[in-house]
Automatic annotation (TrEMBL), chains A, B:
Superkingdom per UniProt: Bacteria
UniProt family annotation: Belongs to the FAD-binding oxidoreductase/transferase type 4 family.
Molecular-function GO term, any one: FAD binding
Native organism: Thermobaculum terrenum (strain ATCC BAA-798 / CCMEE 7001 / YNP1)
FAD-binding PCMH-type domain residues: 35-214
UniProt keyword annotation of Zinc-finger present: no
Protein known as: FAD linked oxidase domain protein
Cofactor: FAD
PROSITE patterns the record matches: FAD_PCMH
Taxonomic lineage: Bacteria, Bacillati, Chloroflexota, Chloroflexia, Candidatus Thermobaculales
Keyword terms of this UniProt record: FAD, Flavoprotein, Oxidoreductase
Length: 472, 472
């Protein structure tokens, strides 16, 4: 980047709003994956106007801009593979309004999701999307990635809670999509197009969110299964009974083992699967009736069902699930956390196929996921210094994607395509649809300056990209 | 249209799939408004392939194509103002699949919404969106318009139930957007962009819908208010108490009077407002607790609360609400059924302003609406042969839009922009956003053949269009 452009940026953002020292830039060269690439500079705007000015300059100078929130991204979406400007929205972190009469919150993009949840809770309100990064990811990042979490079957993903937004186009214009109302058919659903667009179509500078009343009551149970198929059957039977629990989390055999090795709390390591189910709601009698109903269904199929009698017992049951990530981190230095999503009834088959693929390539695989909504996280553990292992990981990942698509599913339920899956986009989407998406990208970002090189396949195939991210 | 093109269409669609007689065309020249314009021909495809072939020819010949379902459209969206081809999707009317394990239905676009609801009910499942046209509008039309209904506050509008779709582009290519899974971040949310695009971006040829378990229990009550503000306060207090009822329907004074004149069932004609509230759910105890809670809140504010003790009493309460349309039709030959949506807390103020506007222009106005989600239908009754009255209707409509936007709302909650509101798009959306939407339209439909002249403002202003729809 030209020094004159850096100076122009500094004049807009002030000295604290622009980073150019290599040490500072390093922190913005990474995300939640193992990928890395250095930007030329980092801008930290504090207003929409600053965002618009930066985009205007970048568009004029043809410098790439990569927007970024908490950077817990798991698909490489915020890695600045072409250098240029990383735009961190973390200083735009105000909750602008909480309106309990209209069940609305208006926030800047840099608000940490958990902070918003805590604030609205004071009004008896709830913002349901809860990606596991909820403590450090931002609402802006969640919107850009259309983040999910544990409660999506019952409550839906981020897109279901966005009513409107202010955005800045790649050419530096400011607009507002959607609004403050829950029924709105004035023009196209532009806000929905921007949700999940991974920072490639616009920079989101303000978000109007729909809230719901906080469900006051919750009950949790854990079921242990000798056979994986029985866990799958249990999930189907709960659904068939007309029940949509708040969460239905599944851990496979190797996941149980890894967590037990980490926690030593006596988890059933001989079991093929564990299922954690939570019911919640606004009336105690209904939550009680629902969890008893689930208990009854599970008791027919599970080797053991453990219904938590109070909050602390429920907390204990959830501890195993929440320990998966730290437990996994102890096994191998690197992790490819996949994120396929299949129709719910295909979950056992998907898990079986993943296990077979891991065996075929002699890889350590730990599987957990959101069984209720079919979103499965097969985590392949590896050491990126082991060239042979890396090559086997790549082949296994490709076969996992293939299996998900064969079973009626897709590449990613909540992590996004970013860099890690762009080479596989054509597995899940037909050429017409990829063509339409590219046409939209080209029309809205004619100079291809906003987060270039993400989502769409290019010459650099997946098989090279994830392990060798230099400038392209 | 050239005779050779008609012949080419006939060879694709067969004799029963192409209409050219003026008598036949007449039925396709109108929709749910009072607008009319004749097409050159009507095609009735039975397959996606036929749809693609027609689009390909139309794109080559630069002939407009206006897709159409049940044509209950209330914004003129299916009026063929530029002649050309009307494409009726009503022969593609198969329910292709109902999958109770995955809570999914796959349908062709011509399936009547109510037929789908009845079919899935047999499996204990529910498809919630219920526009008042539900008995004759199609799923394809509902998706193209992002239709709403009474139950949107609790259950959400059509867009919340679409997982994926097959579509045909304006140039005749076939693609699939979205999928069969409830979490899907593979590429842009193209299916969401197409939902509510009013047939201007693609023809939807198959839809994959999310279903939910059917809520087995429901209770209904009616509250009568001496003052409109108390009805508004009641809605706010119900929300503040953490309750989201299945429906909260409001009728204003003139609406009560019109229905009473029609039904003669002793409605409270001295009251300023009536509120009809329905609770539903999966557990009887919870529904009972919720309706009692609502009853308690309303008893503090209403002159009278009437809780239906059984299904037939509930049915009786709903009869008044359902009689609004036939009752209104008796008063004047024409009706402008507006559809503004404001934040819930602004509903009383919005109704007051509408009443003042009607008084100012000496017009007969009947207001009802979905008070829970802020979607208000001010119906202006008039006679289109009365030139002076028509001119006052036009001025009043403009002021109603202005008021809705001033109160933080928008032009249309569920009817769409179509022809009737396109002149006002700039009231609700900024020029950047209209520009971005136009850019998308131009990029995906470079020859502007798919439902041209809809949504976006043009030279012919709203003030002429609705009452003089010739070829433009």
């Amino acid at each position: 980047m030209k020094e004159s452009v850096i100076e122009e940026l500094r004049s807009i953002l002030g000295p604290s709003g622009l980073l150019v020292d290599q040490g500072d830039l390093l922190a913005y060269s990474i995300d939640g994956t193992w990928l890395e690439a250095m930007p030329d500079c980092v801008v930290l705007p504090t207003s929409t106007q600053q965002v618009a000015q930066v985009m205007s300059i970048a568009n004029r100078e043809l410098v790439p801009v990569v927007p970024r929130g908490g950077s817990s991204n798991l698909s490489g979406g915020t890695i600045p593979i072409n250098g240029g400007i990383v735009m961190s929205l973390t200083r735009m972190n105000k909750i602008l309004e909480i309106d309990p009469d209209n069940l609305i919150a208006v926030v800047q993009p840099g608000v940490i999701t958990h902070d918003l949840q805590s604030e609205v809770r004071k009004y008896g309100l709830y913002y349901p999307p809860d990606p596991s990064s909820v403590q450090h990811s931002t609402i802006g990042g969640n919107v850009a990635e259309n983040a999910g979490g544990l409660r999506c079957l019952k409550y839906g993903v981020t897109s279901k809670y966005v009513l409107g937004m202010e955005y800045v186009t790649p050419t530096g214009e400011v607009g507002r999509a959607g609004g403050r109302v829950i029924k709105n058919v004035t023009g196209y659903q532009l806000e929905q197009l921007l949700i999940g667009s991974e920072g490639t179509l616009a920079i989101i500078t303000e978000i109007t969110l729909r809230l719901i009343p906080y469900p006051k009551y919750r009950r949790t149970l854990m079921a242990v299964f000798d056979r994986l198929e029985d866990a799958g059957k249990a999930v189907s039977e709960i659904t068939r009974a007309g029940i949509i629990p708040a969460a239905m989390e599944l851990m496979d055999k190797s996941c149980i083992q890894v967590v037990e090795d980490y926690l030593r709390i006596g988890l059933p390591v001989a079991a093929e699967a564990m299922l954690l189910v939570e019911s919640d709601g606004y009336y105690e009698s209904a939550v009680e009736a629902e969890i008893r109903h689930i208990d009854g269904i599970l008791s027919e199929l599970a080797a053991e069902v453990n219904l938590a009698e109070d909050e602390s017992q429920a907390e204990e049951l959830w501890r195993a699930r929440r320990s998966v990530s730290p437990a996994v981190a102890k096994i191998k230095p690197n992790k490819l956390g996949e994120d396929v999503c299949v129709p719910r009834s295909a979950v056992p088959e998907m898990i079986r196929r993943c296990q077979e693929i891991a065996e075929k390539y002699d890889l350590k695989l730990v599987i957990y996921g959101h069984a209720g909504d079919g979103n499965i996280h097969p985590n392949i553990l590896f050491d990126k210094r082991d060239v042979d292992e890396v090559s086997r990981v790549q082949k296994a990942a490709a076969e996992i994607f293939q299996a998900a698509v064969e079973l009626g599913g897709t590449l990613t339920g909540e992590h996004g395509i970013g860099l890690l899956k762009k080479g596989f986009l054509g597995l899940a989407l037909d050429s017409t649809t990829i063509g339409v998406m590219r046409t939209i990208k080209r029309a809205l970002d004619p100079n291809n300056i906003l987060n270039p090189g993400k989502i769409f396949p290019d010459e650099a195939s997946y098989l090279q990209v994830p392990f060798d991210v230099g400038r392209t």
